[in-house]
Amino acid sequence: MSPGAWAQTPEAAHVIKVHDRKPLAVLISTPTGAAGKASRSEIINEVADKLEQYTDFSLQLVSNNFLSDCRGRLACVVLKIRQDYDADSREFKLTSQNYQKDSYPRYLLVVSNLTLEGEADRISALMVDTERALELYHYAGKDEPEWEDTLESQISQQAQLGRLFKAEVSSREQTLRFIDDLFIQQIRRPLTSANHWKPYGELQINVPVAGMGIDLDGRTVGTTQAGISLLKGLLPGRHQIKLHKPGYASKNFEVKIQRQKTATIQPELEVIADGSPLPGQLMLYGGIATVVAGGVLTAIALGRQDGNLSTVCFKTESNSCETNQSFQTLDYTSDRDISANNLNPDGLLLAPLGYSLMLSGAVWGTGALISEENDSPWWYLLGGIAAGGLAYGLSAALNGQGLP
Question: What is the pTM (predicted TM-score) of this model?
């Protein structure tokens, strides 16, 4: 494994995006309703692209009616998008979604494009920290006159990230360039301070085999292609990587991801089977078959019980006669002559044999399911034999000497 400088994605690379992006609320306002030099959808797409390119956020579009419904007040807009906060009680609502990190947008980006016929579009943008805005609302003195105006002023001064960014644009290209300038010149600094600006690293996996499962920190995120596979959107720090595919030995790595750098792993793969069942698979199928066989024997034992059958014996000084119950053996039959000395001759006990086989098979099958792909199954095999043998041995030791 080796870290390298941030590089261009190889054209032949199979790209897997693994990050979970946080929502960023975006409100696009067109006060006059007239079409601008760039359409509203083009502005939305450009903002979404810049969020993807520069940050760990994804666009969460807010209804443009919010701004008119709120009469342009940012505090009101923030309360509409932060549904986890109850404005009346001034408390956060304790719901299951509140406990999901970053489930509500931390930031609000408002873009306004004022269009007038025959004139350049007047486009402006500002971004608000919704957490800080909610804090200001929480402690606002509602009993004071014109408290809403005071609150808006506080939000502009303390929750707005940077100044109002604005320009006049005369073409679609200038409008889209404005969006890029907005991110580079205005949004970059506060998001860099908060570790949201280009926060990711990458991992390049070079293997000659397609279809190998890729597990990242215990979660399957994709499969390899033959050649280069690129995991994009990894947060800095140490991560556990596992490559696995039937027929190949699993490969486990701990990789250190650095911001805006690409780490590389190029494992040597080891073929362990050529289309043949793995030991774990054989133990799983064998365990299932053993459970079924044991169940059949147990069912036969239960079906052969005869409640009307009883035996008698004569008690003498030299021969004690006790009434007991015992398990049927494999040689048991109720069709023997009435004077037979032993209707249940010595032999394997049928019911204990059945449920002991079921116990052994269950241990084998469970072991095959919970063990790693290339782990040795022999411990579970021996454990199943021991469990079944112990169950049968105890049953035989406690078995009565008489007849059922």
Answer: 0.62
Sheet-wide strand order for 165-169: 57-62, 22-29, 107-114, 121-129, 165-169
Spatial neighbors of 250 by CB under 8 A, at least 6 apart, are 242, 243, 244, 372, 373, 374
Question: Which token pair is 55?
Answer: 């940050």
One-letter amino acid for residue 305 of the chain: Q
CATH topology of domain 1-19+200-276: Immunoglobulin-like (2.60.40)
Rounded Cα gap, residues 265 and 261, in angstroms: 14
First to last CA, the chain: 69
Provide the phi-psi class of 217: left if phi over 0, else alpha when psi is between -120 and 50, else beta: left
Tell me yes or no: is domain 22-193 CATH 3.40.50: yes
Q: 3-state class of 395 per DSSP? A: helix
- The average confidence (pLDDT) of the chain is 83
- Please give the Cα distance from 66 to 297 (Å, whole number): 72
Residue 9: both structure tokens together: 């994605």
**From 236-250, 297-311, 379-393, the region with the lowest mean pLDDT:** 297-311
- Domain chopping of the chain, boundaries: 1-19+200-276, 22-193, 279-398
